Recover the amino acids of this structure.
């Protein structure tokens, strides 16, 4: 194990102590986690990397993870979170892709922690610690891979693509991925500020669902239907999006954010129905997307995202609302659940109450 500067004897992390949709009630900040435990893992496995986290990224899935929806076998206590940027502080003897001092990102269970130990294959080298890179990981990879890999045609020039929740952290990337492929893009959002942002991202039509009826707009302005839907809201939005598909069109389900604010099992809350007669009548398809199932395609997607971002051809909006330290993770989650954010919500561990 490559050794450099001394590590603290303890570190802090956000731990799930009760499985509930209420992140604040279900988690605590543990301030005396043992660094010796992480060092023992490194000593036992030469392919592991130890990262000192600097910035955390939030996702709607953080709530599902605390609820126990993703892994029924997971029982508290366990560390919350999926995304972090940081610097490598230790590497195992067989690690070759990164070295101590490198800037990296990771999207793995247990990311809401000052220090994270994980396999080398789960870290992404990045040029510098910038919050925008958080928007390229879970969100960017989901957008790129769902649009390009889940349906027979993917995205092609001239397609009409509908993106729901289009100014969220994932939706904003999906809009731009579709535009880069030469598509006509329609996006839904919840206020005029978001509509302005959506048009700035390149969307051809922004639909504010609070002032316009999404279904009526799609029926009147896109009478032949849309070719592809990128859908992460569920409920009425799902129904309207499904009805908008053209013959041989496809709808990709990436989530159901409308169900994330209530207690209960995911199969009880997520009650969207797909009428099979409609599938037959229009020869349409509905397909789900879960990022873990596309691991082999991640290198292709990550390369495109990083290069396109570096060229200034991909915008990653980071919400300006500031959150600092692990104590404010719960506040950041609560803010995310209001739906007011424009872009990626991040928590900076370089300020606040952390040891960093």
């Amino acid at each position: 194990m490559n050794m450099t500067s001394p590590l603290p004897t303890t570190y802090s992390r956000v731990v799930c102590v009760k499985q509930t949709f209420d992140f604040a009630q279900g988690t605590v900040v543990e301030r005396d986690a043992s660094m010796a435990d992480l060092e023992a893992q490194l000593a036992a496995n030469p392919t592991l990397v130890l990262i000192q986290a600097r910035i955390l990224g939030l996702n709607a899935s953080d709530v599902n993870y605390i609820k126990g929806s993703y892994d029924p076998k997971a029982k508290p206590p366990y560390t919350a979170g999926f995304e972090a940027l940081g610097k490598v502080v230790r590497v195992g003897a067989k690690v070759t892709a990164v070295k101590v001092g490198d800037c990296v990102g990771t999207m793995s269970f247990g990311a809401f922690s000052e220090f994270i130990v994980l396999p080398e294959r789960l870290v992404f080298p990045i040029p510098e610690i910038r919050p925008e890179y958080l928007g390229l990981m879970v969100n960017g990879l989901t957008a790129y891979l769902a649009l390009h890999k889940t349906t027979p045609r993917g995205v092609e020039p001239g397609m009409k693509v509908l993106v729901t929740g289009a100014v969220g952290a994932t939706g904003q990337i999906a809009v731009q991925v579709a535009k880069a492929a030469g598509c006509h893009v329609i996006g839904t959002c919840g206020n005029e500020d978001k509509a302005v942002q959506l048009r700035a991202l390149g969307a051809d039509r922004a639909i504010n669902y609070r002032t316009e009826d999404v279904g009526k707009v799609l029926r009147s302005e896109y009478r032949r239907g849309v070719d592809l839907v990128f859908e992460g809201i569920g409920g009425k939005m799902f129904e309207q999006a499904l009805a908008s598909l053209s013959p041989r069109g496809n709808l990709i389900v990436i989530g159901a954010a409308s169900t994330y604010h209530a207690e209960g099992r995911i199969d009880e809350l997520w009650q969207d129905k797909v009428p099979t007669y409609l599938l037959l009548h229009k020869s349409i398809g509905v397909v789900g997307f879960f990022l873990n199932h596309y691991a082999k395609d991640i290198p292709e997607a990550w390369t495109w995202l990083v290069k396109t971002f570096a060229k200034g051809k991909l915008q990653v909006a980071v919400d300006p609302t500031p959150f600092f330290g692990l104590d404010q993770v719960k506040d950041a989650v609560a803010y995310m659940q209001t739906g007011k954010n424009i872009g990626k919500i991040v928590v900076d561990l370089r300020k606040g109450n952390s040891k960093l």
Summary: The chain has twelve helices and 15 strands. The CA atoms of residues 145 and 297 lie 7 Å apart.
